[in-house]
Amino acid sequence: MWPVTLHGDLIELRPPRFRDRAQWNRVRSENKEYLAPWEASLPMTPVGAPASDFISKRPSFYAMVRALQREARAGRSYSFMVWSGNNLVGQITMGGVIYGALRGAHIGYWIDRNYAGRGFTTDAVSTLTKYAFDALGLHRIEINIRPENAASIRVAMKSGYHIEGNRAEFLHISGAWRDHICFVKINDLIK
User: Does the N-terminal peptide bond of residue 43 adopt cis geometry, omega within 30 degrees of 0?
Assistant: First the structure.
């Protein structure tokens, strides 16, 4: 089942490829400050050393692509570059895929600020959710969003997700443990 390309109304979701490196690096560089408040960070460990001491360094683009492809082939996580024509506009990942009694996952994403507010992210979330429900047979998808991220809250709601509740200090984001709102969508075809 992997690799797979998914088509939305406005976007195309494609697995990351080595040849995407230049565009990915450019878009990420141009959006560094824009994305910084929402980016995951590494907390201090209980022994006082930063978790980064236990991780060699941020992987190269090529190592990242290899890891993402390996995870997708194993069915644990599916990461896609979001394209509008020939323009890389973001990235979306459905991770934490669990089968068995839960049959669920969570979605995370980022969008180039030049394409924000134009429906691309909503289309990407809706397209990936449809794939998760129809092709993978998942029952439940979560999107966890910081309360102050009004744009992402609109994306979740427009994509048919509903608020399930709050998660205190849920993820380490931009240097601190941050509260999140949990949005959920249920696959009504799986009973």
Answer: no
Say which residues have a Cβ less than 8 Å from residue 186's Cβ, sequence separation at least 6.
139, 140
CATH classification of the domain holding 81 = 3.40.630.30
Query: Does 158 map to a domain?
Result: yes
1 domain-assigned: no
Enter the pTM of the model.
0.92
Q: Which domain holds residue 160?
A: 6-186
Using CA atoms, how far apart are residues 91 and 80, in angstroms rounded to an integer? 6
Name, in order, each residue with C-beta under 8 angstroms of 149's C-beta and a sequence gap of 6 or more: 38
- For residue 93, list its beta bridge partners: 79, 108
For 101, phi then psi, to 5°, come to: -70, -25
- In tens, the pLDDT along 110-142 reads 999 999 999 999 999 999 999 999 999 999 999
